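cron nightly-structures :: item 1 of 1
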Amino acid sequence: MKTTKTAAFIMALAMTLTAASCSKKEAPASDSDSANTTTAELATETISDDPTEAAAEENTDGEDMENPFGKTADINDYIKTTDINPPLWKVTDNESGNTLYLLGTMHVLPVSAGDYPQQIMDIYKNCDSIAVEYDTVSLAEDTAAQLDLAKGFMYDDGSKLTDHISEGTHTKLKDYFTSLGGYNEMFDQFNAGYFINQLNNIMLMRLENLEIAGTDTYFMNLAKKDNKEVISIETIDTQVKALSAYTDDLGDYLLKDYLDDMDAIDEYADNISQLYEQWANGSGDILFDSDMDIDELPEDLEDDYAQYKNVLLTDRNKGMAEKASELIKSGKNCLFMVGALHYSEDVGVDNLLEGMGYTVEKIA
């Protein structure tokens, strides 16, 4: 299943916001019948009216109910490794002697995952700050930032989802969320990336014994408790643009294929577990040393996907490497952590820093 593979690695390893479990504060609801609903009003309403939340609420009338989103799978049935040894690098500036540790993270983790190695905990204890893709812990308490997040997924040119995807795919999407009790016509003002994200969230919520909070969240909570600075490497805008960078044709294809495969929870669990196994065993080339590719993607969409991958990884990796270089040159005592996928291939953050003249050592 090519699309599930694609979505699994994108969402589990590439983006922090997709794995963030944001607490959505109540906000005034706009008039759903008004033709003059503003972008701000709709985005505000969405904070308290997320389709996945609406679907869950629609189907939780009693205790001990089955998952409202359908069949589940226990991630523990798929993983073999409980001891974890995440990928770790030491970066040294040969001129100043300043160093920075790079940690590859997993944004979602099985609850059975073991403790982080003492070496990593010692590095954390000795640092004054941590750098993460985005401080989602603070985001959970910031309604204004949540509003910016919601608005980022909306079309700003007056168009609607129906102007960007086929009628057949839109009907499938509408029917799916209607069946869950979580569809509202105003959601058509959101782009394909928003709904791909929602569908992935549903799949994640159907995995038993999986925490929708991984390495980043663990260390962010620890840093806030220890009064260490938490530095956001990226902005909300950067992450949302990456999540929305699909061409119309690619967005239509992924939405349709995702909807067709929503019942394939077992294969989805297997793909997530493969990613986890690679990460837990310290792989520095997650995804690219596995069979999780998109070789079945239609040939006429290969350029579209290459363009998307460039926005999702290549461009963002350059920004991450520049931020890491800035931290090293400043002498800041910081533990730098981004999704493990950002260290893969020649465009990985570690390789980019090496190309900038730093000494980069993979730590066993």
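cron nightly-structures :: done
The first strand starts at residue 73 and ends at 74.
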